[in-house]
Every structure is written in C-alpha cells, then in structure tokens.
Design a protein that fits this description.
With about 200 residues, this protein is α+β, with helices and mostly antiparallel strands. It is built from seven helices and seven strands; from the N terminus they run βββββββααααααα.
Length: about 200
C-alpha cells in the first residue's frame, strides 16, 4: 500500500513498512515517509497522452515504527535517515521528538523542504515553490501517514497485506539474520511462506 504526493520536482511517498533487525531478529512496523526526486521523462504521444511519472532518487526518509511485541504507540523504533548515498540510506538517526511527538515532528520536517534538501546535499530548482505546494497538502499527507501507523495495523496478516509489494526486501532480510533463532516465526509466517530463498531460515 503506497500513497504518492507528486509535485514539480519532488514526491512524498507514504506507506506502511515491515522490518526485521538483521542483528537480533526483532520486528518493527509502522509508517515510512520518503522524499524522492522526480525523474523528468520525455513527452510521449499526443498532447493528451498520459505521461510517465517516475519518483526515483531518494533524498530523505522517516520511519515512524513501533517494535512488534513492545508497547503499542510507543514508537520505540522511530528514526530517520537524513541523506542517501545513491539508493542506500544513511545510518539511522534518532531524535527524542521522533518518538514522543512523531506527527508534529513529521509536520515540521516536511514544512521546510529546503532544509531537508540542504542536509541531504541536494539542490532543488525552486525550493520555496516546492515547499509551498507540500505545505498546502500537509494535512492530507499527515492523514495518510497516520492511517498507516503501527497502531492501525492489528495483525501479521494485515501487515503482510499492506507490505506484500516488498516481499523481495523482506526475503533479503530473512536471508541475512545473524540470530534466526530469535525470530518470531508466528508473526513472520506470512513473509516466511513467500520468502524467495529455498534455504531453511
């Protein structure tokens, strides 16, 4: 399940995400919000033809996650990635406000795209105009983000339904677990059944 808010140069992507720690196999889930750059596409067809919209290069990511098995709504695993190297995110960054007031923190971040872009080393053609457009849509973006929050996902089957498009990423996590013996196989069962690897996990 993915919602996209596309503008002139950037897009804000909002979705639910499921994560398995590679070190100790704990499970996390919640809202993922990414800022992407739109990749300009050549015009195709007539003046009325549908055009490609490609949200490609990642700039910034917020992961407003709970630990599965932890205190619901505690946002114990909430963090953000202030920059990317190619498609790969930076290390996790932590901020008390991300955990204690995640939606207000998200609102403040998205209200200043220029600051996000500068911290990520990305130059926007017209950051003021992009910020103005995103700011106008912030209520809708925040509503979308809150609708996919960890507290809105009440079972492993619902979580899997919301993240079934990223089965390959979860399969890669399952293949790289340092402590597969610690994995909550009951909760992870829907992903385990669809893991692409044939080896025993």
């Amino acid at each position: 399940m993915l919602q996209a808010f596309a503008y002139c140069q950037v897009a804000v992507l909002v979705r639910h995400w499921f994560e398995i720690s590679l070190t100790d196999s704990h499970l996390e889930h919640g809202t993922r919000v990414e800022l992407r750059l739109l990749d300009p596409q050549p015009h195709r067809g007539s003046e009325s033809a549908a055009q490609r919209i490609v949200a490609d290069a990642p700039v910034w990511r917020a992961d407003l996650f709970d630990r599965i098995g932890g205190t619901p709504g505690d946002f114990e695993a909430a963090h953000f990635h202030p920059f990317f190297t190619g498609p790969e995110p930076s290390e996790r960054h932590w901020d008390d406000a991300v955990r204690t007031a995640p939606w207000e923190w998200l609102r403040r971040q998205l209200a200043d795209l220029g600051a996000i872009a500068a911290a990520a080393g990305v130059t926007l053609t017209d950051p003021a105009a992009e910020s103005e457009q995103v700011l106008a849509d912030l209520p809708a973006i925040l509503t979308a983000a809150q609708s996919l929050a960890p507290g809105q996902c009440r079972s492993s089957h619902q979580c899997h339904a919301w993240t079934s498009d990223v089965t390959t990423a979860v399969a890669l996590m399952l293949e790289q677990l340092a402590r597969p013996d610690l994995l909550d196989r009951g909760y992870a069962a829907p992903w385990l059944r669809r893991a692409r690897s044939g080896r025993t996990i």
